[in-house]
Amino acid sequence: MSATPPRAIGHAEFLEDLLSRDVLLSTGVPGVYGKGGQFEDVLQGFDAFLTRALSGLGAEQLRFPPLMPRRQLEETGYLSSFPHLAGTVFAFEGTEAEASLQCEHASAHEDWSEFQQMTDLVLTPAACYPVYPVVAARGPLPPEGVMVETGASWVFRHEPSGDPARLQIFQMHEVVRIGSAEQVLAFRDEWSERGVALLQGLGLDGELDAASDPFFGRHGRMLAASQREQALKVELLVQIAGPEPTAVSSFNYHRDHFSGIYDLKLADGSDAHTACIAFGNERITLALLSAHGLDLDTWPSEVRGELWPA
Amino acid sequence: MHATVDQGAFLEELLDHGLFVETGVQGIYAKGGRFEEVRLGLDALLTRAAASLGAERMRFPPLLPRRQFEDTGFLSSFPHLAGTIFAFDGTEAEAALQHERASAHEGWSEFQEMTDLVMMPAACYPVYPAIAGRGPLAEGGVFVDAGAAWVFRHEPSGDPARLQSFHQHELVRIGTPEAVVAWRDQWAERGLGLLRALGLDAELDRASDPFFGRAGRMLAASQREQALKLEVLVTIAGPGPTAVASFNTHHDHFGSTCGIELADGGVAHTACLGFGHERITLALLRTHGLDLERWPEAVRRELWPG
């Protein structure tokens, strides 16, 4: 007799479960939640598990805030590919009279956007973005190239959704590899396989698949097809909620895209190639909660041992 | 804001040693691994202290719903420090134009519209509606550890201790007026002791928030007079000492605006403690030096037990 496959829970039902148990806390905006202690225990356990798995790389550790210079967003082409996902930071620079008018509008929940001006900051769209200019500023790469781990970095995507796995603001743990084409591709391919094994060790059945980014507009469909055809993006898919599995991790090869923007040169003066591997901490946490249940005490002991070694 | 000579020299030292890494915007830095090691040690220390006293953990992202922000009065007191999130909601043609302007580093703000999110102004803000949503408080009220949340202050500066985006670790108490004031006062002493145990030459003092404009000066004087805000001050980079933690009571401000009821139906009072992770980390680096291996054994044990 074959085992009954687990019933696929819907997005709305899963979100309701999470909210009713205070695993997630509603803020009133879809895709923006507080997290209860249970959620945080799993997320921190996973982040530490991942950090241990990556420690053999000897990557340089850099931590970035949730904001980056607007100038970088303008340079990277993000606004061409993903204008719908970007978030920019505005602020007030006016007089006392304007401040009181702004406050009046805001208190009445009326429009006060006219009092806000664009600053030189934007929300970080992906954890790896701020890494490239930092490395470029140091001059030509050493022969072995460069490896930078960002830790769990907050990133923003302006896409309000009722799917608890599609957050507007979430933590992405990335490792960036910069070097020759061969070096970065070998890194990307090795880690996509290791990613599958890592999640297997946590009781998650994942599958790798060629994927594409959610490029904007009609032109974007061509970019997506080309990205998929060249296998630049590989995703690790796991069942969380809803009819389709969700990408919890991605392994990306950018060729020389970033060396066209920043001065990233190999020791011999040629353009560096880049790749990054990204783990979505919240999605993996949700996948674990979906697979093993909302009561952490009843999780398989092997999984608990991996996440919270004594 | 201009940095003093001492502040500028300390920033240079941090950059030279890779503890801070420049991004091109003042007050926005990447942190190197050593900086993060100290900060995480501090985070764990504060989390243990709160957990040992029965705090409930909540964690929030770096963004807050705009509507909630509009209700708090932050825009009356600190309009100059707030950050709001704008985004694009236009057509493909507009996207192309926006991109063209942005690539040329020309103005493209006309293509951006206000969203329903703002930058988190203080780590305790999202706690109040989350508690209000549960209905009247149980006897004894609540004690929440809101963890180290990223908060934003729009004040570019060359002082490494005045960041635009930083971690504020907040503990929040909600209950009767007597309970929250007693809690705040106990924690002011406990917090001071905790920082002194890390070898910091810390002092407790009455303080006020940087209220905006002329009316703000009166608010600040009144806040100081009523001792609503206490700060722990440590010298990081001169001339004066820097506030690294603050212990605040809000009377019924958040209880009223968010609708938090006591068990007996009265309006709840609130207090919060804020520990500035980056500032405390900088104070530790300034006090004990940039080489963590050479820090006093007692300090290392506090930060990294076991």
What does this structure look like?
The complex is a heterodimer of chains A (310) and B (306). Chain A has helices spanning 11-20, 37-54, 70-76, 78-81, 96-107, 131-136, 181-200, 217-229, 281-292, 301-307; strands at residues 24-26, 33-36, 60-63, 67-69, 87-92, 116-123, 146-156, 169-179, 207-211, 233-238, 246-255, 273-280. Chain A is of the alpha+beta class. Chain A has one domain (11-69, 125-307): Bira Bifunctional Protein, Domain 2 (BirA Bifunctional Protein, domain 2), CATH 3.30.930.10. In chain A, the strands form three sheets. Chain A has a seven-stranded mixed beta sheet with strand order 3-7-8-12-11-10-9. A three-stranded antiparallel beta sheet of chain A has the order 4-6-5. In chain A, strands 1-2 form a two-stranded antiparallel sheet. The longest helix of chain A has 20 residues, at 181-200. Chain B has 306 residues and is α+β, with helices and mostly antiparallel strands. Chain B folds into two domains: 5-83 and 121-303, 2-Layer Sandwich (BirA Bifunctional Protein, domain 2), CATH 3.30.930; 85-118, no CATH class. Chain B has eleven helices and twelve strands. Chain B has helices at 5-16, 33-52, 66-72, 74-77, 92-103, 127-132, 177-196, 213-225, 253-258, 277-288, 297-303; strands spanning 20-22, 29-32, 56-59, 63-65, 84-88, 112-119, 142-152, 165-175, 203-206, 229-234, 242-249, 269-276. The longest helix of chain B has 20 residues, at 33-52. The termini of chain B are far apart. The model of chain B has no long low-confidence stretch (mean pLDDT 96). At the A-B interface, β2, α2, β3, β4 and α3 of A face β2, α2, β3, β4 and α3 of B.
